[in-house]
């Protein structure tokens, strides 16, 4: 049943019309003037209006648009009733909001057909308005939830050290929320940590992964943990939290306070670029690990790479969204295109670089999140924090003995450093201790146990061949042993560390060590000598002894 408002000044007309409409099964309300029609419409809420053109006072032309304005956004069909059939009258009826005409005298069949037709339009309009209101409510609710998440993310990232003077960043999300993440924080030893991550997809879902990861990052930086420990902890958390179809490609780096050493872990990210002072490519830092959140703890590889840096070098990090940007000719920027673009700049100014990137992209839509970070590798200038605790008062000794089976499956250094980090006065030194013990362990394993020669790395594709041999020999290893013996002497506030292996002798001469230090490989002993107070090789190179002062 529809509600019909009849507006007619002819006393003999509207009773018959009302009776006719009533026989169709509809509810009828009658008004005799335009003013009365507006009042009746406000209370009766008609579905259709039958309106005379000629009315006392406010005529049909003036009444029609005012009736429409009272309809609360829902289409209100107005059918003009007129005995006039000239073209100007009909056009004017349409121009003021009329939807149809009925010529008087009115034919019942014609009236019923028009009422049904216009009522269907009215119902369609009502449905559309209700759905639009529902969508508007849901949209407002989603926006409110987005605002809450954005507020939480901003608070979570409030400790982000992206305003560090030697770090420039550019992050451009494809949607409201960024699936890329760039974090930076200063460590307790004047060192700088940088994290760049790229979660699967873009938008709100991957952005929520930034919450647990950023909290873990800032907490671990505060404690001065190693890059390897960070990678393992991030992987553990994300593997527990993320669904199976989500992961986070990540690059984690630690720049020493002097700016001369970079320790990094690359899991699934594009090659990081090390540039010289002229913005020319000096070295690529490729991914050698799976992304975070995929592997179980036992399968995850947290081993890091150490790189010695020269004066004036810069580290460039970016997500795949950058090199996959397309221009109007559907050409992607590509890694080589980025290298050429950086080399063409007069300086590594982020604004200049971004302008060049935008010039390449033109008006082509951005399909993925885009992130870029440029870190100038120099002395950080970050003040070293005072130790939070006094040194451990009691002496202790830690002994770890690894057999061939454990050497094949485990990376023990992170566990050893984690154990040491439980003691007062040592936890702030975990990054340096990890570097020392990782280099010592790798020397013992690769040169002592596996008999690998670092000079292999000097050949074409030598690094790849070297690590292939490492994996092959490690897989077939049957009898071998590496032991860690670490003693803490509270009076001297130092650690005495012996790393012994059961392999063949290996003891490079001083001249050989100096020669190795000038190459892209073989810098492990030199690095250890710079980090510790004393270093000595004995038993034909099978035993490496280190002394590390906790006051340094």
TrEMBL record:
Cited SUPFAM superfamilies: CheY-like, PP2C-like
GO molecular function: phosphatase activity
Lineage: superkingdom: Bacteria
Positions bearing 4-aspartylphosphate: 52
One protein family per Pfam: SpoIIE
Regions that span the bilayer: none
Gene Ontology biological process terms in this record: phosphorelay signal transduction system
PROSITE patterns: RESPONSE_REGULATORY
Domain Response regulatory: 3-119
Keywords: Hydrolase, Phosphoprotein
InterPro entries per record: Bact_Sigma-Reg (IPR052016), CheY-like_superfamily (IPR011006), HATPase_C_sf (IPR036890), HATPase_dom (IPR003594), PPM-type-like_dom_sf (IPR036457), PPM-type_phosphatase-like_dom (IPR001932), Sig_transdc_resp-reg_receiver (IPR001789)
Protein's name according to its UniProt entry: Response regulator of sigma subunit, serine phosphatase (CheY-RsbU)
Organism of provenance: Idiomarina xiamenensis 10-D-4
Lineage start: Bacteria, Pseudomonadati, Pseudomonadota, Gammaproteobacteria, Alteromonadales
